[in-house]
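Entry, Tuesday afternoon. Goal for today is a structural model of the target with pyridoxal-5'-phosphate bound, before we commit to ordering more compound. Inputs were pasted exactly as handed over by J.K., no edits. I checked the ligand SMILES twice against the vendor sheet because last time a stereocentre got dropped in transcription.
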Amino acid sequence: MAKQPLSAAEITELVNGLNRLARNLWWTWDQEAQELYQELSPRSWQNLYHNAVAILHEVSEYELRVRLQEQDFADHVRQVLRDFDDYLNEKDTWAAKHAPQLAERPVAYFSAEFGFHETLPIAAGGLGILAGDHAKSASDLGLGFVGISLFYREGYFQQAFDANNWQTEYYTHLNPKNLPVEPVLNSKGEPLVCSVDIGMNQVFFQAWRVNVGRVPVFLLDANRPENEQHYRDLTQRVYGGDSTTRIMQEVLLGMGGVRLLRALGIQPSLFHMNEGHAAFLTLELIRERMAAGKPFAKAVAETKTECFFTTHTPVEAGHDRFSPELMDYALHRFRVHTTVPFEDLMALGRVKPDDKHEPFCMTVLALKLSRAANGVSELHGRVSRHMWHSLYPNVPVEKVPIGHVTNGIHLLGWMKGPVRRFWRRKLTEQPQVASEPVPVGDSTRFWRVRAARDWDREMSSPEFWQRMTDPEFISDEEIWALRYKLRRELLEFTRRRLLLQHQRVTHGDFIAFDHLLNNDALTIGFARRFATYKRAPLIFQQMENIVRLTRDQAQPVQFIFAGKAHPRDDDGKRYIQHIIHLSQYSDLKGHLVFIENYDVHIARQMVSGCDVWLNNPRRPLEASGTSGMKAGCHGCLNLSILDGWWREGYDGENGFAIGEDAHPESVEEQDRLDSANLYKALTEEVIPCFFNRDAQGIPRQWIQKVRHAMATLVPQFNTERMVREYTEKYYLKK
Ligand SMILES: *Cc1c(COP(=O)(O)O)cnc(C)c1O
């Protein structure tokens, strides 16, 4: 029986809903929502790099209205919008029970970068990804939370290579009209404009709001006509420019962020500084108090009660330090207004307050002005207590007030679509979990049962992952089939990317891309920033041995690499050059590939499709690391140095360790030892286990490890656990 066509009003409602949905990043962690936009224009979905807002500009409103007369599509839209509204309006959240006081007075989370999705490339690496995942889980938990960052209109750089495989950088312009951001407006409907003092000047800025589910993140933008050009360019690029640009960006982030919150009438109960970049916010809080008549010392003491700090790295270069001259210049007007003597100000950022030559360290400022602080894994907590012991000379090192909360990932944001669908189907098959499937409308295509969030919640529960050890719930054959599907998806993605990359290469012989890489090979992935301490080329120290492994017809191994080096890091660029060179000219050709322009999308393909995720940092420099956590729910196993999170995650059975829970003092000795241990673990454990197949061709032992990894790692190393821990340990504590 034909249905009544939808009325114009009904269609308008759905069109508005699609527009509203595109401007809330919730759709990036809801599979069905993504499919809506993909279905509108599959080709644009690829070309526009999964950008829902841009798709809605691509498809005319007329077409959209016509398409909505297709019943399946309209049903799909309606169902997704219902789930979306249910999510936004849910009252019964974790935070409603455990942190209701934060609803009125939220946590303000400041971070110089946020990595949410490939369409908003304003993160340089793991720090930003973590901030994005923190915000998503804060939303899921219903936490009173607001994020502050900068709107970099050219984002982080795009990676390209010259004829010598040397990394070059280029930038693309981000157009807010095509992004999931909305301008923050004043009561007259114009952009809300605030200002901060930088050097001798007043610098104006506006803000863009990113809706991350239930929580807002505000991005400050100095590109205002009131400003001179060099101030307009302050928010051009992530960590762009020299230390002058850097300090000015940080003044804008820290002080500007507080001013924006005040202008919006938001009164945070706590200011969380994600890394030292944001620590100037403390100076703005001090200024406010002094303007209210309080003396400097009292203003400092009070500010300390409302700030909290997370340090993210033991690597020296990761801690911003500014010379006294630069501080004098950048904070000139601040000093004039507050009348704080320069040396008193400098003392806040010095380990030795009286040392006139010591530069101003943002980490020191953050530590001195926080009521508590933490590192991002147990080992990193310990390393940080040693690193900053000199700030607390009167306490033993164990009593240095830096604790730890181990990082996590936002599970649903990282779980690949097919995997999520796979787990959902498993859940619907289980009568003890699901109610009866009820077809939506007349369509059986969407078998959604209860609201999507019920499945989603189920999927983030420890109980769900515990069931992975039960062969009744899921068989070895099903897991192996899933692994094959994911590996193939990665290899086909990689071949497409390599074909595109190859178009720029004018030398060398042609590889038949569809035959490149082996669908049955043990596929080892490595992708992250090419900071040298991460030692990307470590495995190739055993070049001849590795070549032999890749050539083994019975037990083939292959490697996929990706990653960006910081534009000014020539050592990192040399590492990349070396690896691309090996992939093109050595005996590893065809068994080693490098995917260019690493980003969130590539990360998702790699952590899901690889069999093994390799991580070999120079211990203890990887404070936590998070990419290995993204592997877990996809059945990819970690092979890693016992540093950061893996030191806590590894239990002997849920993946593979390189070396021991210790490391030699000498860097050379460490590199030599780790390289040998890496090869040892690979040849004595990983490869034999992967290729040990039974009569049905199934690697039972391997799958046993996959099950165990899912049960032990996924429920632990996620941002839901992490944000709860922050809340209970730090956000609520007075
Ligand atoms: C997860 C992720 C990172 C962080 O990876 P690490 O293992 O912590 O170095 C960096 N970049 C992107 C794009 C990511 O997705």
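Confidence is low (pLDDT under 50) at residues 431-450.
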